[in-house]
Amino acid sequence: MQRSRNGRISESHNASAPEQGRPRQRAYAVGVMPDGDDLSELKELLRTAGVATVGELVQHRDQPHPNLYLGPGKVAELKALAKDADANVVVTDDELSPRQERNLEKELGMPVIDRTSVILDIFAGHAGSAEGKLQVELAQLEYNLARMRGLWTHLERLGASAAQPGIGTRGPGESQIETDRRLARDRITALKRKLEHVKATRAIMRAERERAHLPHVALAGYTNAGKSTLLNALTGATVGVRDRLFHTLDPSTRTMRLEGRTYLVTDTVGFIRKLPHQLVDAFGATLEETRRADLLLHVVDASAPEEELSAMTRAVEDVLESIGAGEQTRLLVLNKADAIDEERRRELSFRHPEAVLISAETGQGLDDLRSRIAADFERTLRDVELLVPYSEGGILSELHEAAGDLSREDTPEGVRVSVRLPAVVAERFDRFAATALAPSGR
Ligand SMILES: Nc1nc2c(ncn2[C@@H]2O[C@H](COP(=O)(O)OP(=O)(O)OP(=O)(O)O)[C@@H](O)[C@H]2O)c(=O)[nH]1
Ligand SMILES: [Mg+2]
């Protein structure tokens, strides 16, 4: 990973570079976890970050050691193993306290980085839009500030070479840290202000969409579940798809026609277990898109083994809860059906009778999914009778857009319209109500 002194990603950033020749970063992956868990996800994160994993060590204990993360005996073992494997960095599967990190580095004599740092680094590498970059920078600053570290040091650590191990060379003097902290705080304030502005712009865009009365479907789910692939399949969009974690950071919204209605579909950043809270906080404006949707499609990679699948599902539910989307109407979408066998398919529909099984790649099950989306809106529909004055011609085309079908009759007072609308949309036309009928279709 190449970053300049000010921590920004340079143009030549190229995550796949280590695939050519011997990788510059050779990581020893370590984790404290219950029995049955493993480090496959951390290794996947490292692969995405362009770092090779040259060994791994797991310690089964209830809690990470408060001073060292691993127990002292395990640390000694790790030191020898990492040396044998010619590793030049140790990566932990959990966020470390500054104390754990300091002590572990001292014991091992090599740089130690934690899971949060790796995820932040991936986000930094994948951020494309101005907004995404601001959000990532904010998250990085919050992370660094919390560990009283020099302003930009952690950004350079993945890039630390063997000749310049992090230990001893990276600690700026106390006064430098104080200056850095002040600078960091100023920058955080400035970033938050800019992001508020982004949020306001988004709110205006959203208000415009809401004026158009279009039902809004958001895709949420674990990273790499196939959300972007599904957006493309449903709307004909060409959003980037890749087999790597956190490929999508910026939300994109496209339209889809379904049974005479236009829907908006939004694809956005994916979640992960132990998602750094700094990122959840910083990505508030982006996650707002998910929170505001009328319907959430929770997309799951159904080709993952059962245990992993339920851990991923739970992780997503937790993040949704934490961003205030816990109560939202949602539909579980089991994706990658093409990659599982008949037996597993049966097991899945038994375990998740309410879910839809699809393959965003082959198109299997998409018709079913479309009907489920339409049916969800159908439930919220009510029949309304409106009287629209001739002076409000624009309202009629809005109604057409929102409802598809409507019947109209010209009367001396205006156009009398009978139409089925979602309850929330119907409310917006209340001022034209001739008679409101009882909710139907429930
Ligand atoms: N076999 C199979 N692979 C799929 C399917 N849908 C998506 N994929 C693959 O899964 C990987 C991730 O797909 P994306 O659509 O980028 O996933 P995402 O959820 O948007 O991921 P992030 O943006 O990184 O959070 C890609 O390699 C896709 O080709 C599917 O239905 N079947
Ligand atoms: Mg994506």
Please give a quick description of this structure.
By secondary structure, this protein is α/β, with parallel strands linked by helices.
In what range is the share of β-strand residues? 15-25%
User: How many individual helices?
Assistant: 15
Number of strands: 14
CA-CA gap between termini: 55 Å
The secondary-structure class comes to alpha/beta
Oligomer: single chain
Could you name the ranges where pLDDT drops below 50 across 5 or more consecutive residues?
1-20, 150-171, 436-442
Small-molecule binders here are:
guanosine-5'-triphosphate, magnesium ion
Q: How much is the radius of gyration in Å? A: 26 Å
In N-to-C order, the SSE pattern is EHEHEHEHHHHEHEEHHEHEHEHEHEEHE
The biggest beta sheet is recorded as: 6 strands, mixed
**What is the molecular shape?**
elongated
Share of helix among residues?
40-55%
Widest sheet: strand ordering: 6-7-5-8-9-10
What value does the average pLDDT take? 84
